[in-house]
From TrEMBL:
Belongs to the AB hydrolase superfamily. AB hydrolase 2 family. Gene3D superfamilies: alpha/beta hydrolase. GO terms for cellular component: cytoplasm. InterPro entries: AB_hydrolase_fold (IPR029058), LYPA1-2/EST-like (IPR050565), PLipase/COase/thioEstase (IPR003140). This is palmitoyl-protein hydrolase. Its EC number is 3.1.2.22.
Amino acid sequence: MTALARLKLDVIPASRSHLSSIIFLHGSGDTSEGLQEWLFSILGRKFCLPHSKVIFPSAPLRPYTPMNGAPSTVWFDRKQISQNAPEDLESVDPMCEEISKVIQQEVDQGIPRNKIIVGGFSMGGCLALHVAYRFQRELGGVFALSAFLNNNSKVYQDLASPDSRRPPLFQCHGQVDPLVLYEWGETTKDQLTRAGVTCQFQRYPRLYHEMNKDELDKLQAWIEQTLESS
């Protein structure tokens, strides 16, 4: 069984003609169902756009070092939740390739790469940044909610290459986040901006490691605007 076969994909189809696709990745320990329920509880409706298919993959179960090796639905492993920890590219890269296969499925159905947006919350946002800036630079955009990249990330190294394509970024972060510190998110934004990424950054003074309605409303508005201009 391939890794892609283990990725459960929940889909909200476009309510009108299918012109674009959004891939929304959950945070560590969550699932596609859990993310959709959370979004519904915040918005009071499904996270959907008229002309976009929304795809919610679930990460496979794997041992997770920050939980002393206990199995968890995480996109990749890491030594610790810290900006100073080294990236575990041996687990990051294969999952980026699996998300790239999901993207290719959309392309095979006639959706141009510049009409596909990938993003996520927390660890899902981190994986989305790796996908968009290392594997799939022709995408229409990327979003990262309460997420960060490690210092000296391979993302920054790859963005130093001559390839000028850099999908625009929408990023949000709570300033009282106790798990993924606000400073980590801001540093990530600063380094990506210096690497030539166009970023719309929203900070929330009273937001913890969570999402709120305002940021989701802004995210949907950004997605619609980005897809219209791509």
